Amino acid sequence: MNLRITESPSVHRHLEKKSVDELIGLINQEDQSVATQIKGALPQLSRLINAIVEKTSAGGRLFYVGAGSGGRLSVLDVIELPTTYGVPKGIFNVILAGGADRLVDALEEKEDDTEEAWAKLQEATVTPNDIVVGISASGTTPFVLAALHQCEQHGIATGCIVSNPDSPIAAASTFPVEVITGPEFVTGSTRMKCGTAQKMIFDMISTTTMIQLGRVEDNSMVNVALINDKITDRAVRMLMEKTGIADYEAAKSILLAHGSVKQALEHVSRTS
């Protein structure tokens, strides 16, 4: 049986007797260890991201497969990408236990379903051109593990993000990422340090991949979708900064005519 550090007793005792100041201080102390643990896993994470970049730049797709807090966090990351980076929907995807449309429902019983994830991947016509990344704090979630085994049988590259050493899910993954965050502040509450680690890793995967795919120039979101006034204003000011256009309304007119900062910059470059 694999070691499940995530279920080990908290090193903190008698929490109900502690003050608010004591509790938040101790939680903050625990959270500070997460970045250090991720640092140790950076070589693994680099291999996974390089594989994701290779697949997506060649026309493939990324599928996260997860349940519980980790699966829900992957949904939150993926839904931001079309707006932030102008990437077409369908390249980055999530197969969530119980369905992404039921994100707000805690369908933890769906973690034990060994058929749903692969069935959903088949509905999405997953192929060896794609990559599937399993999300599981324990490293044992049946919903995730079954999907990765099926991917292996069908020649589909896989990765994972887990928080226990030597887990079955890591063993089933082509590119495992193991971030051992240790016992939780409240015993077994993996939405805490494990969830924090997962959120940080999703940020690293999506941001680095978007940069590598050319969706960022310098340090700017030049492909941001102009979906509201705040983002449009940010994009206008970005265009003004990069082109030297001093007239706000003129810059805005060029931006709206071309649909993105990147396209507007190309237009200005061609006509200057």
TrEMBL record:
Protein name: N-acetylmuramic acid 6-phosphate etherase
GO MF terms held by the record: carbohydrate derivative binding; carbon-oxygen lyase activity; ether hydrolase activity
SIS domain: residues covered: 52-215
UniProt xrefs under InterPro entries: Etherase_MurQ, MURQ/GCKR, SIS_dom, SIS_dom_sf
Lineage, uppermost ranks: Bacteria, Pseudomonadati, Bacteroidota, Sphingobacteriia, Sphingobacteriales
Keywords: Carbohydrate metabolism, Lyase
Pfam families: GKRP_SIS_N (PF22645)
Organism, scientific name: Parapedobacter pyrenivorans
GO biological process: amino sugar catabolic process; peptidoglycan turnover
